[in-house]
Structure formats: C-alpha cells, structure tokens
C-alpha cells in the first residue's frame, strides 16, 4: 500500500509538472517593476483562469507618472515582490521564469568599463600594424530602473562570473523557486574582442594572431591565408561564447537549482552548440507571414524586405538541437510583431502556432503580456512591440480557446520523441572564412537568415528541397557529430535517437576531423551524401598544408557519395519519404508509446478532402482533432509494408494529429469523417444590436446585406470596439434538415454562435465552420451570432481625440515600421460579420 501511495504521488507530481509546461507561457514585462501585491494577485489569478501555464518576468522601462511605484531592480523591495509573486504563482499552478537582468542583453550598473562589451581596431603606420580595443559603450536595451548600465562583455568569463555573483549576493541564502533563468537573443552590437583574446586564440588555434594583424585590418578576405585566419578568428569567437559564456552561465544556473532557456540566435557562433548547453533551447517566430489559407491575411504594413519572413526552418535550428541532444522541451518566442498594435486577430495567431509545432516547437511563449494595473483604463500599460496577450486585448475573452488548443497539442508533442531519419550538416565553416558584417562577425540572425543569411543559399535550397519532398531531418553541428556513436549502420546522437543518413549541403570548407568522421560513418554503412560536389578545403591556418594533404587523401572515399539528385539518392537508400508535402500539407512526424505520431496542418488551399499516404506501419490509425476535441479510428489501406493510406478531410487552416498505432484498441469508436453536400445560402433580414464596447454603443439596425461597421449610417460605428449580436430567422424544407455545418465566411474577428437557443460555442480561427446536428435544425430556425472585432478602431478614436495613453519611457510606443505610433492616421479597420453565411449539409 505504501509503495502504491508513493507511486501515486509520483504520478500526480509528474502530471502537475506536465500541465504547467503544456499550457502556453508568456513574456511578462514588469514596466518599471511598478507592480503591487494586489495587482500581482489579481493578474496571476486571471492568467491561470485564461489557461496559461506560466509567466516569464522581464523588468523593463517604466510608465511616466508612476515613478513613486518603481522598484529598483534587485533591491530588497524588488526581491520581496519577486518572493510574493512566486508564492502567488504557486497558488495558481503557474510557473515563473526570470531574465537574469533587465531588458536585454546581460548588463547593468554592476558592469564596469573593463567588463563591458569590447571592439577592436587595427591601424597601420609604415607597414606596422597595431590592434587596440575599447568598450562599445552599448547600454542595456529597454532597461528597468536599477538595471541601467553597460552591456556585459560576452567573451569575458571572469566578467560574467562577476555579473552572476551580483545575483548570488542579492539572492543570498534564500531560495527563490524560479523554474528557469533566461538569456535573450544575442544583441550585443559591435562586440568582437575581449582583453585576453590573443591568449584564448593561441590556446584554441595553436598560433599567435598578433603575427597576422594585417589580416584583421582587411575588409574582405581574398587569399587562402586570409580566409583561413578569418575562419580561425570566427571559430574562436564561437568557442569562447560556448565555453566561457554559455557553459559558465548554464553551469552557474544549475548550481542554483534552476533550468536555463537560451535564445542563442543572433550570436556570432555555431548557434547549434549554444542551444545545446541550455535545458530549453528557444527559437523565435518574429513577424508576419502570408499563408494561402482562404480569408487569411497579414498586416500590409509589415516590412518583409526589412525583417524577413518567419519560417519553420528557422525554428528547426533550436528543435534539431533538442532532438539531437535529447531535450524534452524546446520553446519559441511567439507572435512578436505578428501585426501592428491593436490589429492582431487570433485567426492570424493559430497558423503560426501550427507552423511552430511543424518546426518542432513544443513549449510556446507568447510575446507577450505586459503587467498592467487591474484598474488602468484602456489600453493599459503596453510594451512597445506587439502582440498584446493581456486582459486589455480585444481577444482576451477568446484567448482560453487558443490556450486550451495549444495545451492539448503540446501534451502530445511533449510526450513524444523525434522520428527524423536524416541529419543535415550545418555548414558554418563556409560562412566563417570571410570577414562578415561591419563588426567583423557573423551573427546567425533569425530575422535575416531566410532573406539574406545562411538559409538564402545552396544550403537553404537543400533544406527546402528535402522538406518539400517529405524527408524529415535535423541539423547537426561538427561537435554534435563528434559526440555521436555509430551503431548498426545508424548514427546515434547524444539524445539516443538513431539517424540513417547524413546529408552534407554544397560546401567548400569542412574540418579535417569532420571529414574523417564522415568517412568512418560511411565505412560503417551509414548513408552519407554530398550534394552536387565534395568539399575542397580543410579549415584551420596552422599546419594547413599537412591537413590539406590528408584531407585530399580522404576525398576518394566519397567518390560515389556525391549526389546531383538528393531526392533520388535518399529514396535509393530507402530513407522514408512522406507524401503529405506533395498534397500541400505540412507535418512533423514523431514517436510515442503507441507508435508513430503525426501533427498535420493545412497551411494552404491545395488540399481539402482525399486520401493521404503515411510512411509508417501499424495495426490501427487514430485521428485526433485537438481544436474540437474529437478522436476516433479511421479505416486504412496498406499500400506496402511501410506505407498506408487513409482518408481525411482537412481544409485550409485546420490541423489534426494522426497516430499509427502498434496495437488496435478495443471498442474505440470511429472518427466522424464527414463530406460536404448541398450548400444553402442563408439570407434574409438581419437584425443587429451592439451589446457592449467602447467608446460609443452604435444604434441597432436591420439589413439584408452584411457589411463592415464603418460603412453604417451611424458614424460612431467606425470607432466602435466590442461586440454586436446578429439575428437571422431562416427556413428549411424537411428534406434539408440533416447534419450540417454553418459556414460564417469572413468574420472580423471572433464569433459566439447560438442556433435555436443552443450554444454552439466560440469560433476564432479559419475556417469559421460550425458543426450542427440535424436534431438542432427545424423548418424555422433562429440563428444568433455575437461578433467581436479588433480594438484598432477604438485606439484610432483615442489618438484622434488626443487621449494621453502613450506615456512610457524609453522608446514609448512605435508602430510595426518602428515609427512613432499614431493611430489617428489609420483608416477604419474592417469589422463585423461579412459572410456569406451558408448551411452545408453532409453527404
């Protein structure tokens, strides 16, 4: 009995921990740290009720007029508020993460000039070269009161240790039960040196860089000598960031009993190796993205050429590391600048959530949720960058629907393991053999990587080709290859996952040790492919002639490994190819205790209904619709021993889980597979009442034609933000009373639906299609739809009338183009129910 109780307690604690990570978390900005106990208590309670799993505290700049409430960072008052917050969070089953600093990046008042970020300069006089270095003088961005100061030198281990000691001193012997410490994306501008760089370079590369200052003076590497030395310089920066900074920070955090979350991107390093040192590697979904989903839209003011377009490939940089090194959680900063302030709809959020899952993310962090006092009038306290997920958001009442959807998805994704067959070599050395940007570094920036970075290259083309043809892969670094084991013609990585093939994209430079390891893999029976050509050049300036000869001696081993058609080569090697991509569907394939798990999303308009093929084996197939919480078995046809076919219906914007089960469940019901039949337009006289909102309640009206609110005769409707109730009575013949759907068409932006007095639920994502049982239809029907719009028109009114809500320090409020925010210049934003409204019966 005692063993049973212990086991039960263990299971309960595991479930509790699982719940807190499966629910979405959020960046929680403390503006000026002007938080109060009452405000903390009420906010945390409401966050928990809305379906959040946790918050990530980031102290930032404050609100003008609230200075008397500012709590200086790490002061006794601030620490007491942190302690109170942690206790309140525990009451509400919420976890708390914490940035080790304020704003970003690491830095503040404890950082001296000697410990601050440094940059070098090489000057020449009469053929003699001299290197000097000095602080960049960069200050912490968006710093909170008490956190202002210089940015820390990221290449100085002793400086980092002194910085961490300030936190250890502040925390003292008290344990603050924060779950994880966080390091934001690398934004240390211009830093490229540290005081002991010459010595670290000699230790790591084996020669003195002082003898080659003429190379560091170059703006472009042209000769082989110059390229190799720049390669060594860049690799040294990477090694220092890995061993002296990231490893020191994560090791210190572990001693404090905390996990670490790290946004390694932006670093002048092999970011795969930096991600690998954190407990939770974190990526970033920044910006707006067009999808071919019918009725989907993006903010037309988003500057794609400036910021790039987010992509699942970028997310795979972090998730690959989680797969390769065996980490359960991989997170993402999500919905940053998805649209302008007050203009983001949940129907725009869901596709990026689904694509995040496709990219391997399983721990969503919204960006973000500013703390705002409970009684603060609209729009409350706001962070300068969208998207706002707090109580002042127009979609707050619908947010639990999205949060619950994410929780159901992440429960499955977190309790499964990777099932990718291919390792894609990450060709960082080709990048490193050059001078780089103005700071003479190579920042692996997620914003630019798709438009003009590493993924805008033959490497990126290779990745896109594999994805488009249904091959699942993970990226791997040279170090991660070295730490893997060869077993039974497969490469088993640190995370104990076995891969069947290694693909090397078109590269020129590769370390001799890596090429030798690939030869070892090939001789052991692992499929190794070089796309289009073999590498030609070993890396490293020291003893390069000797290493190059050994390098060239290895190349004939791979004479039959060069592939001009990587897809055919992989198929010949019997690497699994999924045909979902050919059908226009996006997917991730994983393994769980039941068999093979697929998350499949239709992010386009190519597929609607039909059969799909899965490269899996099993005895039964289950479909789970996480949005509508429907599950059941579907019939399948075995095409080959490792290929089966199932029917599905999946419209643009929809997603499902498919499980290919090792064992057939007993007595499990079939999944309801419905096909559309006859379409009946629902027309008539609509009665519309505005029931709640601001700044005015427009007059009720009746209409035969659905239109946007700004086109109404009541001029106040153009400023209205809130909810209107639409009433329609429609008739059906008895023959038309069948199980059906009501398709709402274009909804701006969310809808709650009732039919004949029965609540049919809340709808917030595309397609706006509501299932209706036949017994809820009659010859005469009353349809009631409550539609809630964005808050853009309301903020337009505030700016037109000069209301002073933009009262924040630092950058205050900017728009999506990083210009001073002024909604008074906006045109009214389309709002309301636009339709067409249709009843679609089942076949």
Number of domains as seen in the coordinates: 5
Tell me the radius of gyration: 29 Å
Mean pLDDT: 96
**Cα shape:** globular
Low-confidence runs? 1-19
Our count of helices gives: 19
Global structural class: alpha/beta
Strand content: 25-35%
Biggest sheet: strand arrangement: 1-2-3-8-9-10-11-12
The helix content is 25-40%
The separation of the N and C termini measures 55 Å
The major sheet is characterized as:
8 strands, parallel, barrel
How many distinct beta strands? 41
Feature tags:
843 residues; alpha/beta; 8-stranded parallel beta barrel; 6-stranded antiparallel beta sheet
Notes on the protein architecture:
The protein is of the alpha/beta class and 843 residues long. It has five domains: 189 residues, no CATH class; 179 residues, no CATH class; 151 residues, no CATH class; 93 residues, Immunoglobulin-like, CATH 2.60.40; 165 residues, Galactose-binding domain-like (Jelly Rolls), CATH 2.60.120.260. A hairpin with a 2-residue loop joins β36 and β37. α16 packs parallel to α17.
Task: Tell me briefly what this model is.
The protein has about 850 residues and is an alpha/beta fold.
Task: Set out the fold topology.
Elements: H1 2-22, E1 25-31, H2 37-49, E2 54-60, H3 76-91, E3 95-99, E4 107-108, E5 118-125, E6 128-135, E7 150-151, H4 157-171, E8 180-183, H5 197-205, H6 213-216, H7 224-255, E9 259-262, H8 271-275, E10 280-286, H9 304-307, H10 312-325, E11 331-336, H11 346-358, E12 363-370, H12 399-414, E13 417-418, E14 422-425, H13 428-432, H14 458-468, E15 473-476, H15 478-482, E16 485-487, E17 490-492, E18 498-499, E19 501-504, H16 512-523, E20 527-531, H17 544-554, E21 562-563, H18 566-572, E22 586-592, E23 595-601, E24 609-614, E25 620-625, E26 630-634, E27 637-640, E28 643-649, E29 655-661, E30 676-681, E31 686-694, E32 701-703, E33 721-731, E34 740-743, E35 746-748, E36 750-755, E37 758-763, E38 769-772, E39 780-788, H19 792-800, E40 832-835, E41 838-842
Parallel strand pairs: 1-2, 1-12, 2-3, 3-8, 8-9, 9-10, 10-11, 11-12, 14-15, 14-19, 19-20, 20-21
Antiparallel strand pairs: 4-7, 5-6, 13-22, 16-17, 17-18, 22-23, 23-29, 24-28, 25-26, 25-29, 27-28, 30-41, 31-32, 31-33, 33-39, 34-38, 34-41, 35-40, 36-37, 36-39
Helix pairs in contact: 1-12, 2-3, 4-7, 5-7, 11-12, 16-17
